[in-house]
Amino acid sequence: MTSDQLAAAIIKAFLDAGEGFLEGTLAAALPIFWLLALALHLARPYMLATTRKFSLRLAADIWWVLYIGLRDVIVVLAFIMSFMYLFPDVVVGNDLPIGGSLATALLFGVLLTKLVADADDDPRAFRVVSYLLAAGATLYIVPTLVGVQVSALGLGKPWSSIAASLVTSQDQVVATALWAVSIVAVGVMGIVAVWFNLRTGETKLGRAER
After folding, report:
1. Total domain count for the chain?
2. Would residue 203 count as lying in a domain?
3. Does any domain span residue 2?
4. Which of 2, 92, 124, 202 has its CA at a distance of 20 to 30 angstroms from the CA of residue 180?
5. Do the beta carbons of residue 37 and residue 133 sit within 8 Å?
6. 3-class secondary-structure state, position 52
7. At 31, is the secondary structure helix, strand, or coil?
8. pTM, to two decimals
9. Residue 125, SS3?
10. pLDDT at residue 98 tops 80
C-alpha cells in the first residue's frame, strides 16, 4: 500500500466514523424533539389561557409570540434532523427505528398543514396536526425503544426477533418499502406546497395590481 492509498484509507475511515456518529446522534436526539413538538402543540390551550392572566397586552403578545416561535422551530428542526431517513443508504446501513421514514413524511405533513391552514384558529387543522404529530411520535419512539434499544440488550428470543423486525438494518426489505412510500408521500406533498405558494403569490400579486 502506497502512502497515498494509506492517507485515502485513513481519511475515508474518519469520514465514515464521523458520518456514523452524526447519524447516531441525530437518531438518539429525535425522540426528545418528537415529544417536545407534541407537548408544545397540545399545550396551546394552556398557553392561550395564560395570556389572559397578563395585565399588559404587550407582555401577553410577547408570551404568545415566543410560544408560537418555539413550537414551530421545534417542528422544523425535527424535520431537518429527520431528513436523513429519506436516504436509502442511511436507512439500511444503520440501526435505526423502522418507522423513521414514515415519521419524517408525517412531519412534512404537519408543515404542509400549517402552510395551507391556520392550525391556531381552525379547529379542524389543529386536530389534523395533533393526529399527525401523535402518529409520527408513535412510529418513531416505539420502534426506538422496543426495537433499537432492546436489540442492544440481547435479551434472546422472542424479544430479539421482535426487536429485529423494528430495526432498519435488520429488516431491510420492510425498511426499503417504507422508505419508498415516504419518498412518494413527501414528493406529492412537496408538489402541493409549491402549487399552493405559487397560487397564493399570484393571488396576492393580482390584488396588489388592482
Report:
1. 1
2. yes
3. no
4. 124
5. yes
6. coil
7. helix
8. 0.85
9. helix
10. yes
The answer to the question of residue 5 being in a domain is: no
Q: Return the C-alpha cell found at 138.
A: 408513535
Spell out the long-range contacts of 145-154 with Cβ–Cβ below 8 A and sequence spacing 24 or more: 147/97, 147/98, 148/27, 148/95, 148/96, 148/97, 151/95
Per the listing, cell 408560537 goes with 68
Candidates 166, 195, 178; CA nearest to 105 is 178
Does any domain span residue 57?
yes
**pLDDT tens digit string along 2-47?**
765 666 666 666 556 666 767 878 888 999 999 999 999 999 988 8
Residue where the block lists cell 406533498? 189
156: cell is: 434472546
Nearest Cα residue to 104 out of 140, 148, 147, 144: 140
Domain that holds residue 187: 27-209
Cell digits for 94?
A: 444503520
CA distance linking residue 27 with residue 97, whole number of Å: 8
